[in-house]
Amino acid sequence: MRLEIDTSAPVLVTGATGFLAGWVVKQLVDAGATVHATVRNPEDDSKCGHLKTLSNTSKGKIELFKADLLDDGSYAEAMKNCRVVIHTASPFITNYNDAQKDLIEPAVRGTKNVLNTACSTSSVERVVLTSSCAAICGDTIDCQDAPGGILTEDIWNTTSSASHQAYSFSKVSAEKAAWEIAEAQDKWRLVVINPGFIIGPSLSGKSTSATHDLIGGMGDGRMKSGVPAIQIGTVDVRDVADAHIRGAFLDHANGRHIIFKDIVSFLDLALMLSDKFDSSYSLPKKELPKWLVWLIGPLVDKTFSRRMISRNFGHQWRADNSKSITALGMSYTSLQSSMEEMFQQMIDQKQF
């Protein structure tokens, strides 16, 4: 499937300092595109330094713009003359005080902010939204209610709320808001990318994402007694970036796209590290018993509510990623090589 990246107009990438967004930006500028990259503070080299370096060493160019999800209209300047908008900016955190304020409001209001600006920007022809498999399925047990027990792009998460699986609720709420805006106009097309659990190396140095916190727990001994018995479709961050770019520039790209390489458990991910790192690190070797997590989980991590544990631990997660291959032409990176690269980078950066 031939992919031609249009470099004649700038491409807007929101949340450009993020784990995923950095790779989207890199793939665009490596192809010679000009990227309008929005960040909270363009002067903060601790967050933006890698983007400035990338701009100086690539075929394309990165221009930084200040914008904020909760500042209405703040994306207007960055969006000028852009035909493609790639909206990746959204909180992915597990340590929060107020789900509505810290997760849901920034995700939903930020999406409305960016897409409403697209409606008033004459140059915009396509918007690519980073959603999630969490917008399709809130809890692993929900797969049982899907036709044939397999999740597809036709299914929506109906079980999450502000008090249960708040991150998943933020993703489904933001995506629904995006479709509502998209379907009320005919100027630009919305393409949605729904990745599973994203792993792989970071472009920005030390990352504070929830993904890195989980993998860090495998390396620093926090999980040496075992990992949660959870399955999820998992994918390399560079593949997810590629999916966004294919969604942006393939003429026929449309609708939602489930993105993952393989369905694995957290234990499977830990065991992928065994051959290379087992002698030096206390890597997990087993899954924690559900009864033990049931007893102590809520005391250790507020996201491990008893409802969350009962609806996710020990259940099978099943989904169909075939549309990503047939419609976007995706091919996927080995999860083992992705895990090894990510873990080695975290070692080199002394993250554990």
Automatic annotation (TrEMBL):
Keywords: Initiation factor, Oxidoreductase, Protein biosynthesis. Residues 11-245 form the NAD-dependent epimerase/dehydratase domain. The keyword Transmembrane does not apply. It comes from the Bacteria. Signal peptide: none annotated. GO terms for molecular function: oxidoreductase activity, acting on the CH-OH group of donors, NAD or NADP as acceptor; translation initiation factor activity. This is Translation initiation factor IF-2 protein. It comes from Candidatus Micropelagius thuwalensis.
